[in-house]
Write a structure and sequence with these properties.
The protein is mainly α and 745 residues long. Helices cover 64% and strands 5% of the residues. A 7-stranded mixed sheet has the order 4-3-2-1-5-9-8. A two-stranded antiparallel sheet has the order 6-7. Strand 2 and strand 3 (669-671) form a beta hairpin.
Length: 745
């Protein structure tokens, strides 16, 4: 392409004009699509060109462009928010100031990019046939259509077909992955990336679109925190209100970032968390593929990523924790930069690392601590344990990261006991204090560990099969780790990456051995993070198993080329069988096809889970919460509700302040954050005059959930607030499923 730099300059300027026009005129679709490209890709790409960073391949360059764009957007938001703190700009995160500053920054970067690369007049573009790119879109389209059929007609046949087709696609891809001599590594990698994009996007969309409302637990706290920031277009990291708890409010990934995206792109707040964030999350599996293939090649990298996304923890993270999605993007990209074999000059590497680490630090504090632990162990191992010294992770890099994190969490962000730094200290204290006392108590390891070890009864026999298959994958990971140790000791594996994998394996063991070790991350999420490094061991475990069987069958015969080909074929077949079975169980297809009474997939079994899955929000509950917000005197009147409604529908879809909500129980009332209060406590408003919010579940079952994790529910006749003869309980709203009551003396 001739005169590439001038062409790029014109293209970016043209895109800015289109985005500005669509924003001013509020043109649907064009505003969202063009604005998304401008915000999510262009700044990072221009930044890499300004650095003249040419050592990364095309795939890594694209992924870094997305990660750097997000980090720069967070940095711009932080600087603009500082102007608001100094009272220099009113509502610094609102549409007008952010539109001006973002476009000015992009324009300056565009000009600098042109000036810095004037000596490069051509750009090599490798052609790829259009047909694979077009075919890769079929699965996501089928996935969307399948979700619509489940939602409107309770027909999941197409959704089941999508899972089967996905299974067939990756099995065929694995079995045919023995590269043809006519295909270059570049083309093999390109086709793998297209297949991964198609599969992951299909899985993400099927989960995200299964409900019209937010699905999960933590996402409602995050959404409520975002709304509190968006309403004033200003982020106060030291807010003490009930709405903005310091641990969530301190994270810019769910305050500043969605506020900027919502204001500039005019995207519905729900869809921002349901669709936009999961689309960003696609960077994680693609980044893992780029990282894995540097050490194990295209085929093993492809299988490893498929195993990573096949785990149920992947689906859970996608929908239920937005800040972890953004945090994982920076987490993976940081390791992609650190372990790049084609290392750029140290100055560029330091700049890219610093910006990405800033993005991680302000996005997810738990993952920041995990990152510091990994890089510290890799550096320490290189200095004290392994020979030769690891040079990719220096002591200055570790010190810089640790000091910046400490300053941010301990001083800039509010240093309360429930803040990021306070929670970190609390986890350490809890682990130390309970170690000797609860060491022999299996319950202290959490329900997930107990289920994996078989100490908790499974709902049905088919669930036992799923658990055994899950344990088999962990066993293969252990075997793969032993195989990796042998390769490392023979000098056939990089010591730096081996250090990181060793720590991940050690943490997995400590989760089982040490009580309450998961701490600030529950086991499902911790295991998901560890799989970022352990997934390739699944493939290595199968290869080691097949190699061991081959040696046992013919211990004295020297290996031949024919034997190696057979061993490779056996590995591919065994990998396909285990991975296929694992995928079908983890996606819930087996439980749906067998009509298991306890299905696991919201995408396939929503119509069977609606009556008892508390993660699902019903339209009737939202209608009831909206009516109460619009017509109730909620500012000075207490509202009683069950624990699930408080943390879900009332949190995200009502205007009821958390400080004015009491928890329904077998006593008169409980504050959300603890304590029990009776009707004669004069410190509070008169509890004789209150609202009572009853969800569709409570109306249907005539009981309210109090502590779902411990299976504690209260029948209506056990709740004094509903059976006080001194007051009148009036039904002021009912849609046939959910109700609002009003108690008056």
């Amino acid at each position: 392409m001739n005169n590439w730099n001038l062409t790029l300059l014109v293209y970016v300027l043209s895109l800015q004009v289109i985005v500005l026009a669509s924003m001013v005129l509020d043109i649907p679709f064009i505003r969202q699509v063009s604005g998304f490209v401008l915000l999510a890709i262009i700044p990072g790409f221009l930044f890499l060109r300004i650095l003249r960073s040419k050592k990364f391949d095309v795939g890594t360059t694209f992924l870094l462009s997305v990660g750097l764009s997000l980090a720069l957007l967070l940095l711009i938001g932080a600087l603009m928010n500082l102007l608001g703190t100094l009272s220099l700009v009113s509502q610094p995160l609102s549409f007008v100031p952010m539109t001006i500053i973002v476009n000015v920054v992009v324009c300056i970067m565009n000009v600098l990019s042109y000036l810095r690369n004037r000596d490069i007049q051509t750009f090599e573009v490798r052609n790829m046939r259009f047909s694979p790119l077009l075919c890769s879109l079929i699965l996501p389209i089928m996935s969307i259509a399948g979700v619509l059929l489940v939602g409107y007609f309770h027909n999941n046949m197409l959704s089941l077909a999508v899972v089967i087709v996905i299974s067939a696609v990756f099995v065929v891809s694995i079995l045919s992955s023995r590269a043809s001599p006519k295909l270059s590594s570049y083309h093999i990698s390109s086709y793998h990336i297209l297949i991964l994009l198609s599969i992951v996007l299909s899985l993400v969309l099927s989960q995200a679109l299964s409900s019209n409302y937010l699905y999960g637990d933590d996402i409602h706290d995050e959404f409520n925190t975002f709304l509190a920031t968006k309403n004033v277009s200003y982020w106060n990291p030291q807010n003490n209100s009930y709405v903005q708890q310091s641990s969530d409010n301190s994270m810019m990934s769910i305050t500043v970032l969605p506020t900027i995206l919502s204001n500039l792109l005019n995207i519905n707040a729900d869809w921002l968390f349901k669709i936009v964030f999961p689309i960003f999350f696609l960077v994680v599996p693609l980044g893992l593929y780029q990282l894995y293939r540097r050490y194990w090649g295209e085929r093993s990298a492809f299988v490893s990523v498929i195993f990573f996304v096949a785990n149920f923890a992947f689906f859970a993270v996608v929908l239920t924790n937005s800040k972890q999605m953004i945090g994982e993007i920076f987490f993976v990209l940081l390791f992609l930069v650190l372990f790049s074999k084609n290392t750029d000059n140290s100055r560029n590497k330091w700049i890219i690392f610093a910006i990405l680490f800033f993005g991680l630090m302000v996005s997810h504090y738990s993952m920041t601590y995990m990152f510091l632990l990994f890089v510290f162990f890799a550096w320490l191992g290189g200095r004290l344990l392994w020979k030769p010294t690891i040079t990719r992770i220096s002591g200055s890099l570790v010190a810089f990261s640790a000091c910046l994190s400490f300053l941010w969490y301990a001083y800039i962000i509010q240093p309360r006991f429930d803040g990021p730094f306070g929670k970190f200290v609390g986890v350490i204290q809890t682990t130390i204090v309970t170690f000797s006392r609860e060491f022999f108590s299996l319950e202290s390891r959490g329900g997930d560990v107990q289920a994996a070890l078989g100490s908790v009864a499974r709902p049905t026999a088919i669930h036992y099969v799923g658990t055994l298959l899950y344990d088999l994958t962990i066993l293969l990971i252990l075997i793969g780790f032993v195989s990796l140790i042998v390769k490392w000791r023979r000098g056939k594996f990089d010591s730096a990456f081996f250090s990181v994998i060793s720590l991940a394996m050690g943490l997995l063991v400590l989760v089982i051995v040490v009580p309450n070790f998961a701490g600030f991350l529950e086991l499902g999420r911790l295991y998901h993070i560890l799989l970022l490094f352990l997934s390739p061991l699944f493939v290595l475990g199968i290869e080691a198993f097949v190699s061991t069987i081959s040696r046992l069958r013919a211990p004295k015969n020297p290996p031949s080329l024919n034997d190696e080909e057979k061993k490779t074929s056996y590995c591919l077949i065994l990998t396909s069988i285990i991975l296929l079975a694992f995928f079908l169980f983890q996606t819930g297809l087996v439980y749906e096809v067998t009509r298991d009474p306890v299905p696991s997939s919201i995408a396939l079994s929503r119509y069977r889970m609606e009556n008892y899955s508390f993660g699902l929000i019903h339209e009737s509950d939202v209608s009831s919460a909206s009516w109460l917000s619009q017509y109730g005197r909620i500012e000075n009147t207490w509202t009683f509700a069950d624990s699930v409604s408080i943390s879900h529908v009332l949190d995200s879809y009502s205007a009821v302040d958390r400080g004015m909500i009491l928890l329904l129980s077998n006593t008169t009332g409980r504050m959300l954050y603890g304590g029990t209060y009776d009707e004669h406590n004069s410190f509070f408003f008169n509890l004789n005059t209150t609202y009572i919010y009853l969800s569709s579940f409570s109306i249907a079952e005539e009981k309210v959930p109090f502590y779902v994790q411990k299976n504690i529910y209260y029948d209506f006749d056990e709740i004094p607030i509903l059976n006080n003869t001194d007051v009148f309980v009036n039904r002021i709203y009912s849609n046939g499923k959910s109700e609002n009551l009003y108690r008056v003396p």
